[in-house]
Structures are given as structure tokens and as C-alpha cells.
Amino acid sequence: MGLTWDRVDFSRAVVRLEVTKSGRRREVPMRTRVYEVLSGLAAQPRQADGYVWPRTSTRKAFRRAVRAARIEDFHFHDTRHHFASWFMMRGGTLLTLSKILGHAAIAMTMRYAHLSPEHLRGEMERTDAASRAEIGQMNPAPRHEVPENTAK
User: Which of 52, 85, 137, 143 lies at a 20 to 30 A Cα distance from 112?
Assistant: First the structure.
């Protein structure tokens, strides 16, 4: 939670992560809503230490919100899995997600992207319909000629 204002680049809409688990610097693009929230915060008086949020408030606020919502066994890191799953279910690609999350290996990204049973069922139905349409184009139904009315 140690995000400082010097790592928020509004001109490019990215947040620079200087210290990561892999030891590599990287940039994460901001979603529109994140950009709007950070822009609003930037317009307010800033903390003297340069941090976007007070050092201890984010994790405490998260824990309080989880308790108030009566959610069992939900941790801050779980939000990363939540993001990854929804990113994929809304049409994101595994390679893009891997870059956003900063994973060196796709295998690690796959551990984050949990697809709901409803999503899997929907994808099966979508691809099934597409397959049926392709088969129909390859083998069109025979056309029955209707004799013209010859009665005069």
C-alpha cells in the first residue's frame, strides 16, 4: 500500500511499481475509475510524506469493511484473484493478464484466473452455437423446389 504520488503518471494513465516480488520495475495501466479516483485525490491537499493514502489506513479499512460485510476468510490478496478471474471472464487474454499481474510464467497467471461454472457453461454454449452455424454453412439443408402453380 506504499503508493506515492511520484509513481502515479496521469499523462500516461499508469502506476509505476518500483518494488515488486520479482524485483523488476513495471507499470500497470489504470482503469478509468482508478484514474478518476486518483485524480480526485490529487486535487486535494496531499500528505507531507508523499503517500497517496495514510500508511496504515488502507489495510485497516479493508479489514473493517470485510468484517462489516460479514465475509468469512477473505484477505486483501484475494482481490487480486478476483480481478484476474473477472478480467478473463470479460474477454481479457491470458498473456495480457500475465503482464498486468507481473507474472514471468503463464502457469502462475492460470492459478489466478478462476472461471466460474456459469462462465464455462456459457462459453460451451457459445462455441456450440458457433459450431452448429459452421456445420450448417458447410452442409446446407437441401432446398426443396416448389412447383410453380400451373393452373390457369
Answer: 52
The position carrying cell 416448389 is 146
Cell numbers standing for residue 140? 446446407
CA distance 81 to 151: 73
Residue 66, amino acid: V
Residue 34 is predicted with a pLDDT of 93
Which backbone phi and psi does 103 adopt, to 5 degrees?
Answer: -85, 140
Single-letter amino acid code for the residue at 96: T
Q: At what angle are helices 94-101 and 78-89 packed, to 10 degrees?
A: 150
Q: Inform me whether the pLDDT recorded for 146 exceeds 70.
A: no
d(CA 127, CA 136): 14
pLDDT(71) > 90: yes
Look at 45 and 38; give whichever has higher pLDDT. Answer: 38
In terms of Cβ atoms closer than 10 Å to its own Cβ (0-12, 13-18, 19+), residue 127 is exposed
Backbone conformation region of residue 24, classed left if phi is above 0, alpha if psi is from -120 to 50, else beta:
beta
**Residue ranges per structural domain of the chain:** 1-55, 73-128
